[in-house]
Amino acid sequence: MSARSEEARERDAADPLARFRARFALPRDAAGTPRTYLCGHSLGLLPLAARELVSEELDDWARLGVEGHEHARRPWIPYHENLTAGLAALTGAHPDEVVAMNSLTVNLHLMLASFYRPQGRRTRILMEAGAFSSDRHAVTSQIAWHGLEPARELIELAPRGGEAVLRVEDIEACLAQHGEQIALVLWPGVQFRTGQAFDLARIARLVRARGCVLGFDLAHSIGNVPLELHGSDADFAVWCSYKYLNGGPGAIGGCFVNQRHAQAQPRDRHAGALPGARLAGWWSHEEPTRFLMEPQFRASAGAAAWQISNPSVLSAAPLIAALRIFLEAGIGPLRAKSVALTDYLDSLIRPLEPQVQIITPRLSAERGCQLSIRITTGAARGRSVFEALGARGVVVDWRSPDIIRVAPVPLYNGFEDAWRFAQALRDVLAAAA
Asked: What is the mean pLDDT of the chain?
């Protein structure tokens, strides 16, 4: 056993959060051996308690039928409220500012329908170049929905030539140049390809100073880095729950709407009011009068006014199990372990330069628990390295044209996982030399 592998085992033995690993199902190979799973940035692992919660809902459905809406052990009508405390804690929001609903892109469309209201000179949207394709599709289709030309109205801010990540001062310069034309800024908390984490409070101050509406995509942020959405004064945020939140494939997503918009009615124009129309449905109607089925719409309080439809109980149940673990572990201790674990993995990979290049920022404050690695000898070799890692039982993912993404997730990964990945990468590179 090498000194480095012994160090990894000692650090795992001293880790107060190591006990949470046993609460997740670890993927195994055909022989039953656990694989080295470092892909929580793409799909988080199954919380073992999720089976019981889903089974309870199925049992209540079988036992109660329609009466489960009111008499299940977790009644289905207010089911989303089971998720509120966990989501509020992880987003740094007030409970009435968050709601679990739909999926990320559906939620983004709902938010853009309310908050992207092009008027006069303010018609443009700013987002990062290389954004997740679903976000870009949503944004361009919303621009076109308003009868505008996406090629003219969309501003995509790219890193400087020869650099992989964005500089905040370039965001500031773009806002200074185009701010009076920008209606809305949509920005990631963590950029999915590079793993760059942004100072959201700083970005919010820059955007607010230019009078633009601000939304965040937190798909790679929630459950990964601490968030303070209420304090940042963003207008809205959206996220999915199948990555770091471990809610399961296609899990119910979530949404944040700042309190200052909560009671604004669609035609309000006073200071701080919602800047446009809100799309409505029966589940966004206030609960006390919802089932009267009257034609008049009375909005629910807070972010729930955007909920529209009742959530899928079977989709939401696993997320209840996952959020219970987050509340028990605490995002503060998880972030501390994440920094230590990602820094450790970084230290194991750096000696492999120049065969590899880590494009994720080196400073802990500028990244979550993801490292994006470029194999410097070309995309074809990078792909072969990725496939060779898979053959060795290492689960990471590939992003075209040339990036291997690795995520040591603090809830269920340990230092030995990081060591095993680095050793496998070293062996694969040596075999291909």
From this structure: 94
* 177's tokens: 């140049």
Question: If one looks up domain 3-34+331-432 in CATH, what number appears?
Answer: 3.90.1150.10
Question: Do 196 and 166 contact (CB within 8 A), yes or no?
Answer: yes
The ranges assigned to domains in the chain are 3-34+331-432, 60-324
Q: Which CATH architecture has domain 60-324?
A: 3-Layer(aba) Sandwich (3.40)
Mutual angle of helices 415-432 and 331-349, in 10-degree steps: 20
128 touches 156 (CB < 8 A): yes
Q: How far is CA 172 from CA 125, 130, 202, 214, in A?
A: 15, 19, 10, 14
Q: Is the dihedral of CA 335, 336, 341, 343 positive or negative?
A: positive
**What is the per-residue pLDDT across 10-61, written as a single tens digit (0 to 9) for each?**
999 999 999 999 999 999 999 999 999 999 999 999 999 999 999 999 999 9
Label residue 267 by pLDDT band (50, 70, 90).
Answer: very low
Q: Is the pLDDT of residue 5 over 90?
A: no
What is the CB neighbour count within 10 angstroms for residue 248?
24
The first and second tokens of residue 116, run together, are 């992207």
